[in-house]
Amino acid sequence: MKLNRWLATGMVVAAAAVAGAAPATASHPVDPTQQSLGQLGLRHDLYIGTAVDMAALADPADPQYRATVSTEFSSVTAENVMKWETLEPTRGTYNFGPADELIAFAKRNNQKVRGHVLVWQNQLPAWLTTGVNNGTIGKDELRDILRNHITTVVKHFKGKIWQWDVVNEAVSDPWDSPPTLHYKGFWAQHLGPGYIADAFRWARAADPKALLFYNDYNIEAFGSGDPANDKTQFVYDLAKALLRDRVPIDGIGSQGHLGTQYGNYDTLQVAAALKKFAGLGLATAFTEVDVRSVMTPGVQAGDSGEINPRLQASAANYSVLLQACLADRHCLSYTVWGFTDKHSWVPGWFTNPPEGLATIMDENYQPKRAYNLMKADLIHSGPPYVLPRVPQKPRR
Ligand code: XIL
């Protein structure tokens, strides 16, 4: 995109941002700090999304949740309601209602939808795991069940999903046993790693226009380069092998679940990783960003001397991932995994030690410095180094 077109896009987005108010003019420019993350992202053709908790979205006592999802973001992901246990709690009986509600909400608000998730070892229905474990569901039947699930779900949402997380978290971590990285979990155990290629092929057949992603955590940057212990390298090699076998994969989703107690990465490391995936011809996306902190007794007691450095470190990590994404034209979207500490999976999941403070707004929907830093990144970037995204076409 040429510079003048980029500026024109900015003006249109800016004008649209203040619908109802007088349009922006040279003498009365729009104040970008008053624009939403979603609006600011669109100047770069970058979609800024959030995971959505459907119970919170429907809660009349918490109208600010719904209002913020609709105004602040240009993309949404179902936090839970597109997972297998929710979609098919009883074998053969699909419960699409909550997911359909999210799709309708997104349509009303002009938002793209990331589909999450088709194949994962967690949040599977009990009928499936029990049947496999007690031997009543054998390998051939299990493969048929998986094909059926993918086909049914992807067809149901056909034309409504921009990006599907087809396979999620298939690769082990160095702290698992054995420590050499390997394909982990229910599906690899019962079907072997070939399920990954199968899943992408089945998904493509059911909706040829959706972008198909492999999604995982701890793949923000490359490490040693040895796939035995470098998860990013392992996933890179997986993607390369899938492409070699003409498997229809279009992108790599990097979840971006970080913690301020870890060293983490700088922007250039993360941008280099995105660029390397793009070198394979793949799109990328940050799909589940949050940056948690340990809730020490001091933090819990409200000691600002302990809280502030954590908020600052959290903001810096949000910014590292966003700047890296902005810097690579194949990074199509940046999704946070919840946007308020009032509704975040972190305190319920990371309990020993307790962790929290992971999102970009506090429990009262007040923006934290992470929110402001994200805004600043979106406002202060542009040509010549930050250019609008290159649209990814589904691979045939
Ligand atoms: C989490 C949800 O946020 C929780 O509400 C649920 O109890 C467990 O799953 N990686 C993923 C997401 O791909 O689906 C997970 O979501 C967080 C980790």
From TrEMBL:
InterPro entries: GH, GH10, GH10_dom. GO terms for molecular function: endo-1,4-beta-xylanase activity. SMART domains: Glyco_10. Gene3D superfamilies: Glycosidases (3.20.20.80). GO terms for biological process: xylan catabolic process. It comes from the Bacteria. It catalyses: Endohydrolysis of (1->4)-beta-D-xylosidic linkages in xylans. Its EC number is 3.2.1.8. PANTHER family: BETA-XYLANASE, GLYCOSYL HYDROLASE. This is Beta-xylanase. It comes from Asanoa hainanensis.
